[in-house]
Structures are given as C-alpha cells and as structure tokens.
Design a protein that fits this description.
By secondary structure, the protein is an alpha/beta fold. Helices cover 46% and strands 9% of the residues.
C-alpha cells in the first residue's frame, strides 16, 4: 500500500531561462507586424517555448487525459444528476459521442479515459483501434466515502490514486497533456479544495455545478460546510486532497506532477482540473510554469481559483461542461502560437521596413 507520509513528491525544477526568454521575445518582436500586435498569442508562444526549452517549439503527439471517479457526497444531493451518469458518460467518451470525444477527434488529440474510481464496473476493452479512445482501468475503489461524515479517502487510497496518475503519464507519448475529468459531484470537491487551501468562504466558491437551482445551491453549501467541519484537521495540500477530494482529482494531481517533471505543456481545462493543478502547485510551485489555462469557466469559484494561481485563461466562453472540452477548444491557439514562431517572416527575411520612431 502507499502512504501519504511516505509518498515522495517529485521536485519540479524552476525552468526560468532569461537568455532563452530574451531570444524568444526578440524573435516575436521582429516578425512582420507591429510590436505586440498579436497580443496574447505572443505570450502564449513565449510560454510554450519556455516550457519546451527551445526557440522553435513543436507540439508533438498531444494527449487528452480524462480521469473519472464517483463521490460519496453525491448521495447528499449536491448535484442535479445521479451518480450513474458518471459511468454512462465514460461509456459515451469511449463510444465517441461526448463533447470531448468530438473535439479530440476534430483536433487530432489522442484520448485516454481512466477509471480512477467509478462506482459501477467499467468493462475492459479490447485493444483500441488507432485513433480510437483508450480506456485504462486504475480503480482505487468504487467511489469515495462521504466527505461530509469524514475523510473521502484514506491516505493510502489517495497516494495510490496519485501514483496511478504518475504512471499513466509516464507511459503516454508526446510533449503536451490536456486535462479532463468526469465525476458527478466533483464541482463540490473543487469548491471544498479551494475553500480549504485558499481560506475562502464557501458562499464565494460554490455554484450550480451541473445545473442546481437556488435552493439546490443552498443545500449543496450546507453539505459542503459539513464536509469542511468533519475534516477540519486536514489543512496541508495532501491531507486536504485525501479528506475532501476524489480519486479522479488525485489521479490528475499525479498526472500534473509527472507532466511538469517531464516538461510537457499542460493545458488545464475548467474548475475541477484547475483544482488538481492548485493542489499540485501547492506541493511544487514550479508546476505553474508548465501550465496553459484554457478558459475561465462559468462555474462560480473558478475565477477565484485562477486568481490563486495568477493564471490568465485564454478563453471566456461561459463553458461549464468539463470533460476537457475547454482544453480541446483552446488547443488550436497553441498550434497557432507555434506556427507564428516557426513560419512567420521577420522584417529582415521578408525585406519589409521596420517601424520608425
């Protein structure tokens, strides 16, 4: 078994490189355009070059990783949907009918779905055809315990889930990882982790999730307060993750740590995947140097979570689906940023006059 006390968080190095950053900025400044006129696309190109450590970054074999798990809190009515939806959506991912399946297919993203702790057994699949979604069975248990009555996971279960995330990413090719998730009640988990790790009031960080009405949101807040009270001693990042989190979130924490260690570009989706990055960054702050935040979710609390990480998301489309859908939608912007660096002419090469004072 794994023990959180024995779990060694990998040291994530600071990748700040002033000479490389200066060279990348010089390249961008000398493209055939007014200075800074490509706006956020330029800062995105700079970030990708910094992560990959090169003036000519190329995004290779991008991987969409969707982690799924169920939550004991769901029985308390914190979601508008029953927990059965979790396994049903996993089947939908694999059948190619979910939003993330469609978007991954459109953008050439390899889709891996991980059963981290879905309540219903997911049948193993034969070897997936090339380009088809892949299923990995890494179930720690069939759903977490009810966090409103005590810890959602034992320390050993949490460490096992984190380790699964590390091992899954280690086996995936490519230099870019896009994060996705599925789990009825996991917006509650994200709210709990944000409230505990940032010291923010539950009222500020708790929203409608899958579509609760005003009364449902109040009921959800009351249940989440019970969870915070029942786990008042869980204040460190790993302890809070075990007490309040879910198997899919813990697996994503491991995935983020490993991807950061390998200097992959990490494309963060919405509220729940941001919660995993928040935990990982509290363990190793340099994780954030490798992250591109895809969008600002319509879920209450996500803006506050992004602020905790000083993150500036690329898109703001009112999305609140999860699954990795926002990460997939942002992906073409990363490709465009690399294309501008690689293919756009400089003033000198194009024989175009530079700006005069």
């Amino acid at each position: 078994m794994h023990s959180l006390a024995q779990f060694t968080v990998p040291a994530i190095a600071d990748i700040s490189d002033a000479p490389l950053t200066a060279r990348l900025q010089h390249l961008l400044d000398n493209k055939t355009k007014p200075l800074g006129s490509l706006g956020r696309l330029e800062s995105l190109a700079l970030r990708i070059g910094q992560v990959l450590g090169t003036e000519a970054p190329a995004l290779l074999q991008p991987q969409m990783l969707v982690c799924a798990g169920d939550h004991g809190l769901a029985a308390k009515g914190v979601s508008a949907f029953p927990s059965d939806v979790t396994w049903q959506m996993v089947e939908n991912f694999l059948a190619g009918g979910a939003a993330v399946s469609v978007l991954a297919r459109q953008h050439g993203l390899a889709l891996t779905v991980v059963d981290c702790g879905v309540a219903k057994p997911i049948a193993p699949r034969d070897a997936a055809a090339p380009g088809a979604p892949q299923l990995l069975l890494r179930k720690v248990a069939p759903g977490t315990a009810d966090a409103s009555a005590g810890p959602a996971m034992t320390a050993e279960q949490c460490a096992q889930a984190i380790t699964h995330g590390v091992e899954v990413v280690r086996a995936l090719p490519g230099n870019a990882l896009l994060l996705g998730e599925m789990g009825i009640a996991n917006t509650s988990v994200a709210s709990l982790l944000l409230a505990r790790l940032a010291g923010l009031p539950l009222a500020d960080v708790t929203g409608a999730g899958t579509g609760l009405d005003a009364a449902g949101i109040e009921r959800k807040r009351a249940v989440l307060q019970q969870a915070l009270d029942a786990n008042a001693e869980a204040t460190t990042p790993l302890a809070a993750l075990a007490a309040l989190g879910g198997y899919e979130v813990a697996t994503l924490v491991g995935a983020v740590l490993q991807a950061a260690l390998e200097r992959r570009v990490i494309v963060v989706d919405g509220f729940i995947t941001s919660a995993a990055v928040l935990v990982a960054s509290r363990l190793q702050p340099a994780v954030l140097q490798r992250c591109v935040f895809a969008h600002r979710s319509g879920e209450r609390g996500h803006s506050l979570m992004l602020a905790q990480m000083q993150a500036e998301p690329l898109l703001d489309l009112g999305l609140r689906l999860g699954e990795g859908s926002g990460a997939a939608l942002a992906w073409p912007l990363l490709q465009s940023a690399c294309a501008v660096l690689a293919e756009m002419a400089s003033f000198e090469s194009a024989g175009v006059a530079t700006q005069t004072a």
